[in-house]
Design a protein that fits this description.
Number of helices: 0
Strand order of the largest sheet: 3-4-8-7-6-5
Structural class: mainly beta
Helix content: under 10%
Order of helices and strands: EEEEEEEEE
Length: 97
Amino acid sequence: MVRLKWEIKWNGTQLGKTNDFVMIDGIKYFNRDFLNLEYLKENDKHTEDEKGQINYYDIVINDEVYKNGAWYYADYKTHARDFNKFVAFGKDINLSV
């Protein structure tokens, strides 16, 4: 089985490229190890749902800021996997294979 790599872009800048992702509630979460973290700036927004605390990133490229454009679960774990390394992106992010 071939797993295609997803390319993650905002305003033409590549935020990452990976085939390592998980689906949580129908949303793709990408492994942080394959993201260009220099564009992700953790902010002070936090929310919670039944899986735990969600922390947010602003995406910052030059003078442009996508406020709360990415997020991750700080402590969501199942018996199979720890999901705190996986980041989801907002609707304005281009995901393509």
